[in-house]
UniProtKB/TrEMBL annotation:
It comes from Psychrobacillus psychrotolerans. The chain crosses the membrane at residues 6-22, 117-138, 144-166, 193-219. Keywords: Membrane, Transmembrane, Transmembrane helix. This is Zn-dependent protease. The keyword Membrane applies. InterPro entries: Zn_peptidase_2.
Amino acid sequence: MASYLIYFAIILLLPLYAQMKVKRTYKKYSKVRSTSGMTGAQVARTILDANGLADVQVVESRGFLSDHYNPMTKIVALSSHNFHEASVAGSAIAAHEVGHAIQHKESYSFLNLRHKLVPVANISSNASWVFIMIGMIASFPNLMLIGIVLLAAGVVFQIVTLPVEFNASSRAMDQMVSHGIIRNEEERHAKKVLSAAALTYVAATAVAVLELLRLVLIYTGMSRND
């Protein structure tokens, strides 16, 4: 019983900690004005143009930290504060999203793989728990195994996402430094923002892997009982 309580505490608290960490770090460095004085929109435009991506648009997006890059429309969307304000946090996030655009241009292997896995992950994630729950309730191991395989596809998607995000952050740092967008101490601050954001992906992946392993153990126990 104690082990189950510890397990559920981990899968509940780890993502919560990651979310709190990114919000706290972002709040702190969104108040630190970058010495370049460039808004997030200007940072994104500067890096895009420098990398031959004039066809990628930079637009404002509603919502808190709703920043993203859409490879289908070739749009870098930045949340309002990051779009309009000149802060270290906004610069780091804008550069990170442009990092994805650069990955897209260069056909970065893990990004391509993630794109291919999107439809599979969407379908499998929704269907997996139907098979798992029915298999557990009806004590039908084979049905549960189908659910586990489907769930594993979603876990693979999350694992593949990690190198995509880390690589985008690495590109962001290189671009910001080379174009003089951040200087000296700002580099350390920008890394903290990007590391905090990456932690949310790490936490989500860790929870997904743990849940998959738990279900595999349950399936193994059911199979032995049969």
